[in-house]
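ok so i was messing around last nite and threw this chain in just to see what happens. nothing serious, just curious
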Amino acid sequence: MLRRLFLPMLATLFCAVPAVAQVTPDRVFYRDREGKVANVDGEIKESASGVQVIGPDKKVKNTISAADMVRIDYSTVPGVDRTGQQAAITFEGTGDAVKAAAEYRKLITVPGATGNPKAKRYLEFRELIWSAKIADAKTGDDFKLEGKKVADRLAVFSKANIASWEAWATTRLAARYYCELEDISAAADTISILSRSAALTPELRHEAKLIEVGYLFRGNKRADAEGLLKDLAADKDFPATGPLRERWMIFEEILKAPVPAPERKPSDQPVTTEETDARTAKVKLAAAKIEALIAKSKDLAARGAGYSAVGEVFVRHGLWRDAMWAFLWVDVVYNQDRDEQIKAVHRLVQIFTVLKEKEKVGDADKDRADLYRERLPRIR
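result:
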């Protein structure tokens, strides 16, 4: 009798095991078409180019580009206690960068986690992102010190994890830090980690090359920028139409803009007003052609990158007020790409330092350079 009762109970227990052992599915956070953070649950497949989310029916629910990825909250992380992971995720939800970074640093020290590639990548990525947020809140010399440390760590992570989707975010973030630190060569070199990656889809690799061109314009490296644009033109996979082609056309037109006059020597004859006016007219004519292409572009991010680049043309020629308007377009209107917006505001600090303009704030007149300097941490 006991045997007859026990066997059915045992069978029921075994049948129930899968349900009991089943864990919460992985949760993927990403930016949707409107730029808002959304999430989706399911089984995931990761690559350098992004993440696929598989539903219970084993069909693909979502394919998310690495450029749109925010993070993954894994249901289980090898070697990591679920309670500790949940604590870190909770701090992320509250936006407490200091506590979130500290919690991930604590988890990284667990031997079982550091010995597993997936766990190590996950924990290092999240710790780096929150360490970057801590640096973003700093200003002046404090930002320079912390920004350099974070940028170097991000670059190291990117090279070590180039086959993973996280590299897109960490590489772009490192390049943006180097740009703010006025090391434009390092910014362009860092982005080349992506632009040369065979692990990426052609579309992402093309986008990375165009981002690199933008940094090269910033660093006044026209020849290098021209070389990359020629590479894209010769690439059979580069699209003939669409946002990437529109950005390429804008950048190609920028290469036609006049180069600045050579630095003058004490023995040179003074420049006449007529010569200055003629050179300025040529620069503004070139800028008008560039802006006409920007206006034709249907992609807002392409417009932002275009105005950033044309702003650099004006900066090189000392046309500070024209440069101001170009970068204001990026900051106020075409700010869909946060990196471009931050680069623009950083330039506006420099431009208003030269122009020495003031703005009424309450009852006081404040330097516009200081206002934009204060704005930087708020938009990072």
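not much to say yet. The two ends are 72 Å apart (CA to CA).
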